[in-house]
Amino acid sequence: MNAYSTEEPGYDTSVSPEQESKLLPRVAKRREPVKVPTTYLVGMEGSPLVKIGFTSGDPKKRLASLQTGQPMKLSLLWSSEGDHESALHHRFAPHRVRGEWFDLTPLGDPVQVVEDAIRFPDKDSTVPKQAPRLGRKAHRS
Predict the structure, then answer these.
(1) Of 53, 109, 110, 46, nearest in space to 80 by CA
(2) 141 has a pLDDT exceeding 50
(3) Fewer CB within 10 Å of terminal CB in the chain, N or C?
(4) Which of 120, 92, 121 is nearest to 104 (CA)?
(5) Residue in 82, 88, 89, 100 with CA at minimum distance from that of residue 43
(6) How far, in Å, CA of 24 to CA of 8, rounded?
(7) What is the count of structural domains for the chain?
(8) Within a domain: residue 110?
């Protein structure tokens, strides 16, 4: 018996080796890679602004899609598994310039500021540890 057979009498689902060799590649193609939610920080060359974003795919691919619409060079400054975008947007709302772009330089090094916000979420009690993502579409990667 192979993996496609059952022990029940009168119920034979066995697959020949030829059929199996044709089926396995199709089954393997259907498996999609596991997408890991990732929060990222992108910087823009010549600017103090940083983008706090979220992707369910590869942050480097997300960076490439963002770069398409930007005349200045963008760089991935930081990324971390998990969805912290909403909590970070809430925490840094006073430093929002526009949309998802913030000027965190008055608080220090933007990467360190964001890392500290993730590491010590209770430091500012008005910030939820992880904001819910109700009804929000994830960024394309």
Answers:
(1) 53
(2) no
(3) N
(4) 92
(5) 100
(6) 24
(7) 1
(8) yes
Helices (H) and strands (E) in the chain, counts: 4, 5
| In the predicted structure, residue 105 carries a pLDDT above the cut 50 | yes
Could you say which DSSP state residue 129 is in?
A: S
How far apart, in whole angstroms, are the C-alpha atoms of residue 48 and residue 5? 63
Residue 60 one-letter amino acid: K
Count the residues in the chain.
Answer: 141
Q: Which domain holds residue 85?
A: 38-123
Of the chain, the end-to-end C-alpha distance in Å amounts to 43
Residue in 119, 32, 15 with CA at minimum distance from that of residue 5: 15
The reply to whether 67 falls in a domain is: yes
CA distance 6 to 53: 49
Q: Which residues does 44 contact at the CB level (< 8 Å), separation at least 6?
A: 50, 51, 70, 72, 73, 74
